[in-house]
Each structure stands twice: as C-alpha cells, then as structure tokens.
C-alpha cells in the first residue's frame, strides 16, 4: 500500500500546486474570454445604413443614351440607359480609395474629386490612380414595372475588361 | 514676509505634503526629484549634454508639452462639442462664432496637433542622428515608434470630428486602406479565402459599419478623446522612465 501512495505522490500535484494552477488557469481563461468578447463587441450586429434594395423610378423616366445622376447623393449610384435602350446601374464608389465620383455631363466622364481618377461613360477607368473600372449593381424590375437596384449583388469591375461583356446579366433589357 | 513663509513651511500640513526643505544641496535636489510622483520619472541627475539644446533640441520635451496643451484644450472643446451627425458640424461653427474664446481654443488645439506631428518626427530624427537608439536604448526606440503611431492615430481620428467634407472623405480614403490589410481586410491577401467581407473586416470594426456614418463619428470621438490618449500616457510614462533607467540622456559616442 505504502508503495502505491509514494508513486502516486510523484505523479499527482500537491494540493498547493493544484490550487495555484487552478487559480491561474481561471484568471488566464477569464482574460482570454474577455479579450475575445471585447473584439467581438466592436462588430455591431444591427446597422442603420441605407437599405441595399431601392426603386429608382420607371423605365420611361430615362432617355436613351443618357447617364442619370439623380440618385448620386442618396445612394451613390448612377442609372445609365444605353443607346439600344438597355439599362445598367453603376456604382459611383471610386475604385481607388472610395470617394464618390461625379458624373460630368459636359465631358461625358465620371470624375473623382479626391485624386482625380477618370472613368468613361461605361465606367471604365482611363486616367488617375483608380486600378479598375467602376463596379455595377444588379438592376431589375418590380411587378409594378419600376426599376429596382440591389446593392447586395455586385458585379466587380475588372482591370482591362468591359463589364458589358463579362457581366451580361448586369444589363437590363426592357 | 520671511516669517510668514517660514511659519507656513513649518506647519505639519505643509510638511506632510512636501518632505524636503529648500536648502540647495546636491542631496536635497536629488531628493526633491525622487520624492515627487511626477518628477521621479525624470533622472535625478543628468549629464551636462542632457540640458544642451544643441544635443536634444528639446524635441521630446516639446512634443510632451504639446501633448499637455492638446489635453487641456481638448477637454475644454468637449464641453461644447457633440459627436452626432446632426450636431457635430454646427457645434464646430458655434465654437468658432459664439463661444467666448472658442475660435482661439479650437485653433490652439488644431495647431498644436499639427505641430506635435512635426516635433515628434524631429525628435525621432535627432535621436537617430545622435545615435541614441543604440544599446542600452533600443527598447526606448521601440516605445518611441509606438508613440509615433499613436500620435498619427490621434491626428487621424481628430480629423473626422468637424464632420466637414474634408474630414469625411479623408476618413473614407484612410479607412479604405485598411481594406487591403492581409487577412483582416476584405480586399487584402488571403482575405477572401478565409471569408472576410465588408461586414466583418478590420474597417468594419473601425467604422462600426460598412461606410463612414454616425457610428464612425462616435467611434472616432471616443478613440480620439479617451482611448488613444490613455494608451499614449501609459507609453509616455514608460518612455520617460526608460530614459532614466537607461542612464539618462545619451552622451557622446
Ligand atoms: C509622444 C511622443 C514622444 C514624446 C512625448 C517623447 C518624449 C521624450 C523625451 C522628453 C525625451 C528626453 C530627451 C529629449 O527631450 O529629446 C525622449 C527621449 C528619447 N526618445 Fe522620445 N518621445 C516621443 C516619441 C519618440 C519617438 C517617435 C522615438 C523614436 C522612434 C523616440 C525615441 C526616443 C529615445 C531613443 C530617447 C532617448 C534619447 C537619449 O537618451 O538621448 N521617442 N523622448
Ligand atoms: S478615391 Fe477616387 S481617385 Fe482616389
């Protein structure tokens, strides 16, 4: 019997060591838990941002071959109607560092005020630091015949590519 | 007059607060530094070079002085400024046009902020040129780099607070750079692979949203007025303490 206890004592912790380990273990796991909770705390779960889906009027409101900038301030987009009557919705968020590009009707280009990037009426970058064309958002129509933008579906502009060709689904034919 | 002074400095009250008399002996001077909670961070004795303007330019000292000015003027600004989308810009205007000495106050805070960035860089430059980053002072250089980053962050978060076009787009551009951070930015290397999006990356945590808005303004305010200053004060205390512990201001090589 005595032999067993002696060898057990070698494996087992003393009461003191056990309590010290338990104490420190508790403190450390509390600190790790608090750190994780604090990081998570910084990610809000509910946002009060403008909705991803919104209507932008009826197709008849748009004339052929024109860029319509009336939703620039509220949603940072333009609705473009091409010569052939089809539509697409272009994001005005500059692909450089995210300022809002302006539509300049006189020059027929999108121009970003922050570092001077320029995009043609198809949203393709041709001057300044912007590395790729402007993104597009999904455009569809509601049962009532209104145009509706869905910002959660993004057609990302890719350097050197025409979004008309790589994203035919971004064009809406009415 | 003498007698009154003598009487006051001999009361128990006075002596309980100030432990050392004013006799000008080397020992007393050292004790006055050591016995003071603020001054004890400072070396009790410094080399002749340490007080030479041509050696230190006093740039670290000036940086600290500017930090104190910014703390005092910043707290005063907080009495009139509200970090909300509806109020922030107009509170700045009120500070400029209706608050007594508000324009002066705001400008002191702004200029001291700009100056601090300049003086901290000059301080770093002088430490580099005098070779003061060499052992045993390597760690104080590291602390210095942290202080530099904190100072730039103070500048950056303060920029958004007027809620004007300049600040708004500067913060838009600045936080968009965080998108490109590896792993924790949704446009950075590995980001897409491990599933970071606009709604869970570093930028989202900084702004409290996917765009610069009400949450971003409030966050910038709290970091600017509370969070970063507290962290900076802790680092500064250690920075000064290390100057003392590493043998005072560096001497000639
Ligand atoms: C909040 C910003 C900072 C404050 C308030 C500050 C303050 C000070 C002060 C008061 C001194 C005493 C000597 C002097 O006045 O030049 C000092 C020394 C020193 N600082 Fe800083 N500093 C800051 C940032 C930095 C930075 C950015 C660096 C470099 C990366 C740095 C590295 C050092 C080193 C190595 C010393 C020791 C120099 C010597 O012994 O000659 N500090 N600092
Ligand atoms: S953000 Fe548009 S050019 Fe830089």
UniProtKB/TrEMBL annotation, chain A:
Q: Please state the span of the N-terminal signal peptide per the UniProt entry.
A: none
Which segments does the entry list as coiled coil? none
Q: Name one Pfam family in it.
A: Rieske
Q: Which PROSITE patterns match?
A: RIESKE (PS51296)
Tell me the Gene3D superfamilies matching this sequence. Answer: Rieske [2Fe-2S] iron-sulphur domain (2.102.10.10)
GO MF term set: 2 iron, 2 sulfur cluster binding; metal ion binding
Q: Does the keyword Membrane apply?
A: yes
Spell out the CDD domains in the cross-references.
Rieske
User: What is this protein's name?
Assistant: Rieske domain-containing protein
Q: Which organism is it from?
A: marine sediment metagenome
Q: What is the lineage of its organism?
A: unclassified sequences, metagenomes, ecological metagenomes
From TrEMBL, chain B:
What is the name attached to this protein's record?
Answer: Cytochrome b/b6 N-terminal region profile domain-containing protein
Fetch the PANTHER family from UniProt. CYTOCHROME B
Might you name a Gene Ontology BP term for this protein?
A: respiratory electron transport chain
User: Span of the secretion signal?
Assistant: none
Asked whether the keyword ATP-binding is assigned, the reply is no
Recorded source organism is marine sediment metagenome
Give the matching Gene3D superfamilies: Cytochrome Bc1 Complex, Chain C
Domain named Cytochrome b/b6 N-terminal region profile: residues:
19-252
**Alphabetized UniProt keyword annotations:** Membrane, Transmembrane, Transmembrane helix
Q: Give one Pfam family, short name only.
A: Cytochrome_B
Q: Which GO terms describe its cellular component?
A: membrane
PROSITE patterns linked to this entry: CYTB_NTER
Q: Which residues cross the membrane?
A: 57-81, 111-129, 141-161, 221-241
Coiled-coil regions listed in the entry: none
Which GO molecular function, any one, fits this protein according to its record? oxidoreductase activity
Record keywords: Transmembrane included? yes
């Amino acid at each position: 019997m005595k032999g067993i206890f002696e060898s057990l004592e070698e494996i087992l912790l003393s009461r003191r060591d056990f309590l010290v380990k338990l104490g420190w273990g508790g403190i450390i796991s509390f600190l790790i838990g608090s750190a994780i909770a604090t990081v998570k705390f910084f990610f809000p779960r509910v946002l009060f941002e403008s909705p991803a889906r919104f209507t932008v009027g009826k197709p008849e409101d748009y004339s052929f071959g024109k860029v319509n900038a009336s939703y620039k301030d509220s949603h940072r987009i333009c609705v473009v109607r091409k010569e052939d009557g089809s539509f697409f919705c272009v994001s005005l968020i500059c692909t450089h560092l995210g300022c809002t590009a302006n539509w300049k009707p006189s020059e027929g280009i999108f121009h970003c005020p922050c570092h001077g990037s320029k995009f043609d009426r198809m949203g393709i970058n041709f001057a300044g630091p912007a590395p790729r064309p402007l993104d597009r958002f999904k455009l569809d129509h509601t049962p009532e015949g209104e145009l509706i933008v869905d910002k959660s579906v993004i057609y990302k502009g890719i350097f050197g590519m025409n979004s008309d060709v790589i994203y035919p689904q971004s064009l809406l034919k009415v | 007059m003498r007698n009154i002074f003598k009487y006051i400095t001999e009361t128990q009250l006075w002596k309980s607060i100030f432990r050392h008399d004013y006799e000008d002996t080397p020992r007393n001077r050292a004790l006055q530094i050591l016995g003071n909670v603020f001054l004890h961070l400072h070396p009790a004795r410094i080399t002749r070079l340490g007080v030479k303007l041509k050696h230190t330019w006093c740039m670290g000292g000036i940086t600290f002085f500017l930090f104190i000015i910014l703390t005092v003027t910043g707290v005063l600004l907080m009495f009139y400024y509200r970090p909300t989308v509806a109020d922030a810009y107009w509170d700045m205007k009120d500070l400029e046009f209706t608050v007594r000495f508000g324009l002066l106050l705001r400008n002191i805070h702004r200029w001291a902020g700009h100056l601090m960035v300049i003086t901290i860089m000059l301080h770093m430059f002088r430490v580099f040129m005098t070779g003061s980053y060499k052992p045993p002072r390597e760690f104080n250089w590291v602390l210095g780099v942290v202080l530099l980053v904190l100072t730039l962050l103070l500048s950056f978060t303060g920029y958004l607070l007027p809620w004007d076009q300049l600040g708004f787009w500067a913060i838009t551009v600045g936080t968009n750079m965080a998108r490109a951070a590896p792993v924790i930015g949704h446009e950075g290397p590995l980001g897409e692979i491990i599933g970071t999006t606009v709604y869970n990356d570093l930028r989202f945590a900084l702004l409290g949203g996917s765009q610069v808005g009400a949450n971003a303004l409030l966050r910038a305010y709290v970091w600017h007025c509370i969070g970063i200053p507290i962290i900076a004060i802790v680092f500064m205390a250690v920075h000064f303490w290390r100057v003392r512990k590493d043998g005072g201001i560096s001497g000639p090589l």
